[in-house]
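Notes continue from the previous slide.

Worked example: a multi-chain complex. Inputs as given:
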Amino acid sequence: MNRDKDKGKVLINRSFIMIIAKLVLLTVIILRLYYLQVFQADKYKMLADENRISTRLLIPPRGIIYDRNGVMIASNRQNFQVMIVAEQTPDVQKTLNKFKKIMPLAGDEEERIKRDLRRNRSFVPIKIKDNLTWDEVAKIQLNAPDLQGIYIDEGLSRDYPFGESMAHILGYVSSVSEKEAKLDNDPLLQVPGFKIGKAGVEKLFEKELRGRGGSLKLEVNAYGRVMKEIERIEGVPGRALSLTIDSRLQQKAYDLFKEQEQSGAAIVLDVRTGEILAFVSAPSYDPNAMAKGLSSQEWKDLVANERNPLSNKAIAGQYSPGSTFKTVVALAALESGIIKPQMRFFCSGQMYVGNHAFHCWRRAGHGPLNVVEALMHSCDIYFYEVAQRIGIERIAEMARRFGLGKELNIGLDNEKSGLIPDKKWKLKRFGETWQQGETVIAGIGQGYVLTTPLQLATMVARIANGGYEVKPTFTKIADRSKIKKMDISSEYIDTVKQGMYDVVNVPGGTAYRSHFNIDGKEMAGKTGSTQVRRITMKERQTRILRQDELPWKFRDHALFIAFAPYDNPLYGIAVLVEHGGGGSSVAAPIASAILQEAINLDILK
Amino acid sequence: MYKPYETTINNQAQTLGEKFANISFSYVLFICVLAGIGFVVLYSAANGNWNPWAIKQLIRFGMGFCLMIVLALTDIRFFMRYAYVLYFITLLLLIAVEVGGHIGMGAQRWINLGIIKLQPSELMKISLVLALARYFHATSLQTIRTIPGIIPPALMALFPAALIVMQPDLGTSLMLVFTTVAIFFAVGVQLWKFALVGAGALSVMPIAWHFLHDYQKNRVLTFLDPERDPLGAGYHIIQSKIALGSGGIFGKGFMNGTQSHLNFLPEKHTDFIFTMLSEEFGMIGGVVIIVLNMLILIYSYAFAIRCASYFGKLVAIGLATNYFLYVFINTAMVLGLIPVVGVPLPLISYGGTVMLSIMASFGIILCVHINRNIQIGKD
């Protein structure tokens, strides 16, 4: 019995130890609950929200771009895509086979679709094909009962109705590069398939056109399926833009280049404001193809094209202005007082500066000429004489006042400054002093002088408007009274304008063949042709080759600057035709046709 | 409430009515409250439906409740008498399942009896406690303190434990071993022997590691570092902690647990039901469960201490320990304190076998209490 008592006592003692131990262990559970649910509650609440809330960006529609008359020149097109949802189709392969009978798929497309289906959960829609035509959409809708799990989805894609004629103004949109994504922290850029402006106005006004993305907070379950919408914040659609371009004039100008298979540039400005009415660089590229994405072969072809369709020749091409430069040389001469309007110089066809002979384009010479006659005939000797007398500094100063020699900052990429040389520049650039012969050659717009077609258009606009410092722009100028007038006598400008009038409208003028008269509205202009090759002494002694005897690359650049109507100037134009031959024969007719179109359309009422 | 000083009835047969009146109604109440909370959570787990879980669980609880009452009203000497018989039958069933499993029933752990699936390993938890209680009831303290005295009961435990670990069901097997250790401790086996066996177990651990299945190794490794495989094995522990932690003090509200309703929480109606409960009802809900279980344990021990027979005491302690192991292993597991071993939370987790075996245990514990004054001889 005693032993049994001991046995019972031991059991009771140990039972107490056991129940205490158990209660302690369960207290540990309570403490652990406290640690997780009170002490670390905030951390886990955040993690739980991260689990359940999936935020999606709502992509705002990109701003539409209009021309000056409200015509859409960049818009958003509905892009029909056909999608498949694996879990809604009984047999993916069979459904795809049925689909292929209705609409064939390109070779590797089916592989791509199957890969996407494998990589995503079964309720995620996978794109089969995009950019469907209406016919294709109708076909799929018609066969819908056979195509379970396949449906049509619409998105927006950028559309440029004028295609290549506007490409150098508008640029294009394309997928975001890694570098761009790093520079801009807008979350929209992280959205797959989002496109941003890569060139032109699309890039210049990217921020305004893009708008702001909205967000959609969704509750999702562990498999990513959407359970309900928690919150929707609407975004801000991209702002619409109105440009100063007139799409009719733009199309006409581009077509002129295209019909003649010429490359070059043409810019039409409103001379009163600097608003750009047409802005052509030819040849061009198809921005719609760019927005869709080019194949590497298409890209290679574009880059390798010797006419350089990707380069915006209106601002990125630098050319010798040639004889069009004589207008500012004449202004510099008149303003200097050294040259009087009636002073005549005799052109014998050639002259010597030091030991070096300088030739007039007309071997026989022009005889005695004043400034108006010299402009009309584009006499080189007259301007050699004038340049020599007034010196390079006066010429350079006047050229700069008329918009040459530095960027006009219209905002597009790759705008070049051109070059107006002077003594300081030469010393800095070559460490050499300026030579008299260099002044002479600058007097006819050759040598070091380089300008862009846009600068020439600005120059002619400033002449046409009587010396107002207009700057070219794609956005409307609300108040033109703010435009400054340059301190230059209108008498001198009128003299130069008279010379430009005679170029076109007096028989014997270098562009007489391009004259027109629409209800008394006439054009005034100045031709220019610039050599891109050196004429050798030997060639000069025998016979200078005609332009059509030379290969394209060695032909002269043809230039023409003009304004119209002469009496009440509204339109200023600069035309450059690369390797076009002569300014009077190639560039002037194009400019004339464009200006007639502008007058007929009565763009600036 | 439990009344420690009620009148004693000396070793005389009680009528059925007397026995019934002697049932501790507080104890039964705790059990019903816990089970009731279980139905509520299962109802929420099915997104506000009685189907598929809550209604079945209710039926099982009803069956379990009847079983509990029947066992509670049984004479305790019956359990004493048939303890070994029951043990051997259960062992045979275990062997049958083990052999059958190899022959072609796959990795089945149960025998289909038509209405219920009998899981011998679950039954063994009770049978082993009864068998050990009978052995120690008949053995003197001196014998218990000798090594030959504890070899037979050790073998009684290790043989089924080994069979079960081969099933493979590490969780149940460990529970058998722990329960046995607890009984050895209670009957007075010297502490140095535990220390010796413990040291021995530690030294063979590297070898045992070798024999673990890959998924078992993974569970241990993942427990040690849940981030090791956040989408695979560690996912359960991480999501369970997120669900618990985000519940805070007051919880997200009934049917509002995001982690559980959006399926981030795995096994929310079975092994991880404590997590779901603590997500929706917060720390308050979790503490209520633990406190109710503490009360059940305190009452069980009180029954044991108040019982006159050594057999009764030991049966109550053994079964209470078994119940405690369920509760502790499950909650510690979902709280990330121990590896995920796949042990349900009794009375609350969805599952028929455990419900029945636990209700049977409660029935036997109540039986110990009702028969607390009956002396039992050593045979």
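Summary box: The first strand of chain B starts at residue 111 and ends at 112. Chain B has a mean pLDDT of 87.
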